[in-house]
Write a structure and sequence with these properties.
- With 235 residues, the chain is α/β, with parallel strands linked by helices.
- The protein is built from six helices and eleven strands.
- The strands form three sheets. A six-stranded parallel beta sheet has the order 1-11-10-7-2-3.
- Strand 5 and strand 6 form a beta hairpin.
- Helix 1 crosses helix 2.
- 43% of the residues are buried.
Length: 235
Amino acid sequence: MDNYQTFENPKALSLAFAQLFAVWSRLKKPLHVALSGGSTPRLLFELWGSEYLHTIDWSAFHFWWGDERCVPPDHPESNYKMAWGLFLSKLDIPADQIHRIRGEADPEREAKRYAEELATHLPMSNGWPVFDLILLGMGEDGHTASIFPDQIDLFYSQEYCVVAQHPQSGQLRVSFTGGVLNQAQEVAFLVTGAAKATIVSAIFNQQEGWMAYPAALVKARELTWYLDDAAAGAL
């Protein structure tokens, strides 16, 4: 069973993770962290941009994204836009320590360019770039990053980054592959909401069909799921 912690609600989860992150951030420099999008990280980013703005040595960080929608950086659906508005714009760090996926660029070319940027800046192991921490969420369909169940083969790609397509909207996205996710020193899943409880239970209890969920395939060196009570409701 995966390591997990439960919290009363998304706010309590975000508060606890922010505290753990602040302690963790003192361990080494530099720190390469990949961010995620979605509603749960929003609460965390708000904390980083307010209560932790001056209590964490942000100069040690390089920020990346595990996936990005193929939209301009000022688009409401941009993962970069959310992080920039809530905390990154408030940090006094060099611009070259913020590694944006260029959602406005040609997706295939951008996937290759971003992969090259990973290889340039991150330490490598077994031919894969190694992050200190990757933040992930999980969708109601069990997807993570932008690897969806109907495109699960992308998880096993030998590329660092691939172009995925949202199964309903058709929106293109650039995403890390499983090799990058699984080489990270640490991965933290931040998962909230009752709509995800059944899949969380299926993954943790290895119920029939559980390997069809991309989130179930993430097996980093240190893997922790941070769940609110609603998401953990079927465990």
